[in-house]
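Quarterly update from the structural biology core.
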Amino acid sequence: MLSESPSVNAQSDLPPIFGCWFKARGWQARDHQLAILEHAKKGESCLLVAPTGAGKTLAGFLPSLTDLANNKSVGVHTLYISPLKALAVDIARNLETPVKEMGLDISIETRTGDTPQSKRSRQRYNPPDILVTTPEQASLLIAHEGADKFFASLKFIVLDELHALVASKRGLLLSLALTRIAGLAPGARRIGLSATVADPALLCQWLGGLEAPARLVMGTTGARPHITILETKQRLPWSGHSARYAIPEIYQLICDTRLALVFVNTRSQAERLFQDLWDANEDHLPIALHHGSLDVAQRRKVEAAMTCGKLRAVVCTSTLDLGIDWGDVDLVINVGAPKGSSRILQRIGRANHQLDKPSRAVFVPSNRFEVLECEAARVAAMQGEQDSKPPLGKKRDVLAQHILGRACAGAFCADVLFAEVTTAAVWHDLSRSEFDEVLDFVATGGYALSSYERYAKLKQSANGKWRLSHPRLSQNYRLNSGTIVEEAMIKVRMVRKQPAKGKPRPLNRFGGKALGEIEEWFVEQLVPGDTFLFAGQVLRFEGLQEMSAMVSRTFASEPKVPSYYGGKFPLSTYLAGRVRSMLADPDQQKQLPGQVRDWLNIQRWKSVLPKSDDMLVETFPRANKHYLVCYPFDGRLAHQTLGMLVTQRLERMGAQPLGFVANDYAL
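Predicted structure, tokenized:
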């Protein structure tokens, strides 16, 4: 339901100290910020949907800060949940500024996977007023025996970048954690913060439940972004994803700006592009690298340097996608395919971070197919079209994890837990039989594993309540909770320098500086002497020492590049439809670069360009084999499913296919 406008005297409803703080900066609280404050005073949960630069973060914190200014909390007052660790750290840092300037006695801390264990343990017994954390840590907090005491004083739950959470299993697990927190702190109000989405009503239901959806507050629309596709004089590749042809032009764009964020879609691409830019960096510009596999100290160092204006460019992945406030960024460069209009709008919003100024962005396609996708994304972004995914439906594996976590906090009644879980909109249609099947699976391991005692994780007491079958399961849960799927990781450490004189010593047991982590399967392929790119450096693999890959700096012309499981984004259905429409419409093709128009003319001459509702199928012989290529333009995930079906059908017909390869455009 759309929020009403704030009342006439809403500005005067701000505590005097806040009014003075706004006035000292020449600011005035925006309508949507005041609307959030009014809903909070009425005890209502609400969702703010607004573009980047609209002051969503301040709006989310205003109810907490105004309440804490008048009423000192005993225990945690506000739980602020962010989808990214980097965003959590940035939010806490930025919030400390107004708190200090207003002289408020409010403590603020972060709690992420990077927080030392000693600090996390202390926080459970001596929490700050405002705790900025992640979905995974929220699930761990409710899995402790003292969760009831920890959340007893909770007044607000702020969910930042909600649109980025609800479409994944992380969001599903968070929705279950929220039902548990609601049971422990019934009066806690929820405030959701989201970028512009296709259907805000779905997020309101997700946030508040079907019976009492959150009130919707729509922020002011910002200036339209200014987006261009790189016009290159170089030959555009027909394939590949490196965009090396454009390195001189990307470097020139960096030279012409104060600070540029150069986004890529994978960590491997980030390492390659950073190295290529560094090789081209004749002016010795400060250019940094940021992705999730780098050591946390290195990431924080880069973030601090950005905040202080010490960098000219950062090559990054989705770790910097969301609402981190880098005010000096004046250009976003997206290298490679955008994959979705909502995602690219989120990235573009990193530039300027001001509501009344257009964000500048340049798309750099790495091949000719990607030019089509970049043009489709450019038009969609200029028109404000969204392809955000709806909230993900219920998944049994997520429910199983929540049930086990609930048992870690103490014995529970199945009836009570079922009633609690089904208060969430995502889980409202969960039947009791489905719930009991998942509970039985957690308790016994299911029909396949019920004969093995070690898989029996829960036992039912005489009073009917369920509890852990062994205390060690609690520790196992805390070490393995979460829904982010990753391969086994190996630390990468520098070998400590050998003494200048005397006998060389063996690899130091603990090594030197930690650079980050790479996946175990990649390390298994290395032999001492191999070189690879990581953390923006060319490294020589010296050997394994316990669970660390020991490396030293070196030079090599063709080092390997680590790749990571699950590192690719699929093309969205919306953009796929726009690409099909472009291929079928000669008028739309007039906007494309000459090289791409010539390429499409060759396709039209040699074969055909499919209509928007057609699928082109081509066959050709090569090396005594026959190949079949389909062009559904429906994205990699759809093509992988189609490939398995087609392969199975061909096998039934006795064709004996060798296999298939799928990408976002073809099969």
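The first strand starts at residue 46 and ends at 49.
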